[in-house]
C-alpha cells in the first residue's frame, strides 16, 4: 500500500467525508458545533429565565397593609422586647423600612360607641389603655386591642417628640382598620413609636423620685402637692398580662398617673393618707384622652406630626 493510501486511511480526506462515519472530522466538528449551540441555547434560555422572569410587583404600602389586614398576620421584621418596668414592652425593627412603608396593624375588635361604652364600664384600667377610639365616616368607633392576641401593633409605645410611624385608617372589605406607616426611614434595632396625641400622658412627665426613670427629654411638668412622687408607697409588680404594673398591696393596676406618684384606684389599698382629691384626679379620664386622629391613608400624607386632622382619636385610660 502506498504511503498516500495509508495517510488517506488514517486521515480521511475532507473532500470526501462520509456523513455516517463517526470518525469523520466533519462529523466530529458538526457534533461539537451542535453541542456548543445546544449549550449556548440552554445558557441563553437560563439567562432569559433569570433576566426575563416577571418581577414580583412591589406592593404599594396601602395594598400591603390591606394584605396583612386580610390575613390577620403581622409583617416580618419586628420583635417585641421588654424595655423596663416603666415602659413595659416595646416593638423593635429587625430590618430596614423605608419612609412610607406599612409597618403593623393595630389589631383588635372594631366596635361601635355603645359597645365601647359597655366595655369601658367593665374593663379594668389595665385593659382600657388598649382601647383606641376614633372617628370614621362620621361614626365614633373603637379598636379594642385589650386581648393579648400576640399581635404587635397593640404593643407600640408612644413618642410625641420624634415618632417614626403614624397611625392611619384604611378600609378593607368595608371595615376600617388602624395601621401604622413609617414616617421616616427606620433602621434595624429602632423602637417603633407613634404619637398617641396631645393629652397629658403620664409618662411624658419626668418624675425624678421614681425608681424607674422615664426616658423622655421633655421638661418636668408642674405637679400639684397632692401628686408628690414620694407619697407613693406602692411596690410595683410586673404583670404577666401586660406592662401595666400592679400594686403589691392590692394587686390592682396603677391608674393613669401612676408615674406622678398617685395611688392605684383599688380601695383595698387605702391604708394610708391619700386624699379623695387624688382619687378623683385618677378617675378623671379627660387628661388622658387622645386627641390625635388616624387620618384616612393617602400616599402623600406620611408625616409624623399627628396634626392637621379633623376627627378625634382617643386611647382612654
Ligand atoms: C398600648 S400599650 C403599649 C404596650 C405596653 N408598653 C405594654 O407593654 O403592654 C400603652 C401603655 O404602654 C406604656 N407606654 C406607652 N408609651 C410609653 C412611653 N413613651 N413611656 C412609658 N410608657 C409608655 C403605658 O403603660 C401605656 O399605658
Automatic annotation (TrEMBL):
Signal peptide span per the entry? none
Q: The organism sits in which domain of life? A: Eukaryota
**Pfam families hit by this protein:** SET
Chain segments carrying region Disordered: 275-317
Coiled-coil segments: none
Residue intervals of the SET domain? 76-197
State the SUPFAM superfamilies in the record.
SET domain
Q: Which Gene3D superfamilies match?
A: SET domain
For bias type Polar residues, the affected ranges are: 308-317
- The name on file for this protein is SET domain-containing protein
The protein's organism comes out as Ataeniobius toweri
